[in-house]
Specification:
The protein has 278 residues and is of the alpha/beta class. It is built from eleven helices and eight strands. Bound molecules: magnesium ion (MG) and zinc ion.
Amino acid sequence: MAPSPPAQQAPGVVVVFDFDRTIIDWDSDNWVITKLGATDAFHRLRPTMRWNPLMDRMMGEVHARGKTAEDIRECLRSAPLDVHVVSAIKTAAALGCDLKVVSDANTFFIETVLAHHGVLGCFSEIKTNPASVDVDGRLRISPFHDSATAPHGCSLCPENMCKGKIIEKIQAIAGAEKQHFIYIGDGKGDYCPSLKLGEGDYVMPKENYPLWNLICSNKQLLKAEIHPWNSGEELEKTLLKLVNKVISPPAQVSPVDCSKCESVTTELGHHQALRVPH
Ligand SMILES: [Mg+2]
Ligand SMILES: [Zn+2]
């Protein structure tokens, strides 16, 4: 007998979340650097280094100050996550949407925060810079794209990550089956993927942030429908309105059915996967 399909399903709805200042209302790199007392080193090195290698270097600074990977985890767990965003994630997952994170932070930070708030397993994929703890207990952060061996060639994006290329890959895997994308972000790096969206897709830019400003500079360049938001509450309202509009026939929300949230698969390519216990 064929296995019965899941009770809740929204076939073809892919929700892609940026992480910093989108899922969380703060910036995880800044949070860790500030809370673990590495601000001076950050300001000293910032003029000479690109962001991604700088973050790896900052983890070295933090380690040199005697802070362990567990201290970094504790620090990330102490940061807030808007209850409306948690609810939006759980509800969209319960409705059967395929949730993904595409972020220029790193696996360690993102998995720690999402696991702490019980929503890590709501996501099918986290596309971000790989992170691992080395033998000395120092957190290492590597680029998502290796610019030396495989440059992504996109002039809009930082050399370690082109989110547009990531979206194109997700679209290609979807293939002929029509998928509706909902992309939620705030930053400059979220503009390239927004341009890759097509008719029937949606972009949710955080109002008055760089992505919103770039979109407003020429709205004609986007094929996706634009739905701004400016708080966790509005993110939830807007996202669920769009999901309900796309899914047909309209599905019922089961009260916090987050059985999927027990496990997570993170694609880390050739890099070592880092598990966050929870
Ligand atoms: Mg962001
Ligand atoms: Zn790009």
